[in-house]
């Protein structure tokens, strides 16, 4: 398997800024030096809050910073209960437990996603059932879901690729008709909306990520958004190693003990302290990301009009969050050439998911419902371009110029 996006994302670090490193001579368009795919930037109060957390003498989970982060998420998304976790992966594992997925159960999801979406089901012995994606948003094609439902289907795991929402009204209606649970993998979805509603707040459960490659970050981090009241009490227990410690701390029981299955899903207060500083600056971060996204979109528009590449499509009902700027090249060869030339120029352009149905573990643990032509075709031609809050306009223009050269065969 090729390097994961996050491994690739860190192959060029910001500290390399002056030296092109072992790669070939920079492309004339990138005299400024390497342009990393992502740079995880502090936004303001991170160091002050870390110092405060250390001073609090409370470094384990669920201290004051974790509580402030949970409260912020609840305010911001309108979810019933937000629980910080150490990753989005962990939040999705909790969701699979809360849905009581059991061996032989089936979960419908796209193949075009990160491995964690599928692993959450597989860890319970459930079988991911892949259906194809829509060519416009690269999200699960809601029109294909019903045909994949069997008497073993328990849930639909929806992924909001690039912070552009899947068709949640249609998907929730299907779930209601068939008595299925919906988990939103909103790892990429912070600050994005569907019909005015924050991503992660629409399904029965939502999971968001604060990994350093996402829009707001904690290094590693995530949260479970519990939109359905029924899951709140048990979520506290699963996250606290299967104990009723939360009730004990709230004074609702006089000792705490082992009451259910569970694991350790709490992040340290240090992560929460960093994250709170990011939350406080989310508007600035989002403004900067949108500026960069819009600039790519404007500069590359003529190429799209000429049919030399395809740009992302955002349906009217979605407010995206500028999480990813990607282009879809007209052929696999053009994609290979673009990746080769960006690499030679020190530009951190990267492909994305190897479809899970074609991966060794996908073949072992999952099945596909029908052919997945859009998944296979789109994933083979997609390239993500550098995008972060501090990315300079001239860097964007240099990247776009190289994309244009490749698209035009120069
Ligand atoms: C990043 C990502 C994840 C994993 O998030 P972690 O916080 O690193 O566990 C899961 N799903 C999708 C779609 C992602 O983009």
UniProtKB/TrEMBL annotation:
This is dTDP-4-amino-4,6-dideoxygalactose transaminase. CDD domains: AHBA_syn. Coiled coil: none annotated. Pfam families: DegT_DnrJ_EryC1. The active site is at 214 (proton acceptor). Its EC number is 2.6.1.59. Residues 1-37 are annotated as: Disordered. PANTHER family: DTDP-4-AMINO-4,6-DIDEOXYGALACTOSE TRANSAMINASE (PTHR30244:SF34), TRANSAMINASE (PTHR30244). Keywords: Aminotransferase, Pyridoxal phosphate, Transferase. The keyword Transferase applies. One of its GO terms (biological process) is polysaccharide biosynthetic process. The modification N6-(pyridoxal phosphate)lysine is found at residue 214. It comes from Lichenibacterium minor. GO terms for molecular function: dTDP-4-amino-4,6-dideoxygalactose transaminase activity; pyridoxal phosphate binding. The keyword Magnesium does not apply. Belongs to the DegT/DnrJ/EryC1 family. It comes from the Bacteria.
